[in-house]
Design brief:
Structural class: alpha/beta
Oligomer: single chain
Order of helices and strands: HHEHEHEHEHEHH
Helix content: 55-70%
Shape: globular
Strand order of the largest sheet: 3-2-1-4-5
CATH class of one domain: Alpha Beta
Radius of gyration: 19 Å
Largest sheet: 5 strands, parallel
Number of helices: 8
Strand content: 5-15%
């Protein structure tokens, strides 16, 4: 019994060690994030939908949300979308203020402030945009795009992916690779959960 437990423990530690080596010394994070991101053409359109990640402390944007809001400003400067919809109950107002402060006219930016999840982002944005016939682009982090775009299409909004480099941006630095791999593993679990619920 003790020998079997010892072999299991040694095998488990060896597997974890091997996984850490693979994640740290190969571009696995980059490859997987790329496969989840969809098209990288950064298409033009009429409406840009931007998903928040989370609100930061003391009324500040968290890193992922800040990154998405910053790329939304860049996207608007390149394409001058007719409308930008920022989604997420806690972070959308902060994103709206940041985007307007960065030079986008206030009447262009609409905040959807009811959603608490990617599925709710899709559901409430679809309600908000149900009468808007323009083409719609979905901007979110590379690793989040697969699940987000599928959820939006399931909710009835035909969106084109506008992924931003999140995991891809930081995966070139060894110190970030293990935390990024944890984020990717969590996203994989969420994808499976959304599939099991029929949300994507």
């Amino acid at each position: 019994m003790i020998g079997r437990l010892w072999r299991f423990l040694v095998g488990s530690l060896a597997t974890v060690g091997l996984l850490l080596l693979v994640v740290t010394f190969t571009p696995l994070d980059f490859w997987y994030a790329t496969s989840l991101s969809g098209n990288w053409n950064n298409p033009d359109g009429d409406v840009l939908i931007v998903l928040s990640a989370s609100a930061g402390p003391n009324g500040l944007l968290a890193r992922d949300t800040y990154l998405r809001a910053s790329y939304a400003v860049l996207a608007w400067k390149e394409a001058h979308y007719r409308k930008i919809v920022v989604c997420g109950r806690d972070a959308a107002p902060l994103m709206r203020d940041f985007i307007v402060f960065s030079g986008v006219p206030a009447d262009v930016v609409v905040a959807e402030t009811d959603s608490l999840s990617t599925r709710e982002n899709a559901t409430f944005a679809a309600q908000l945009l149900r009468d808007d016939k323009g083409s719609k682009m979905l901007l979110t982090s590379d690793y989040h795009m697969y699940r987000a775009a599928a959820a939006f299409r399931k909710a009835g909004l035909n969106v084109k992916p506008y992924p931003i480099p999140d995991v891809r941006k930081y995966s070139g630095q060894y110190r970030y690779r293990v935390p990024l791999a944890v984020d990717l593993a969590e996203e994989s679990v969420k994808i499976l959960y959304y599939r099991s619920k029929g949300w994507i």
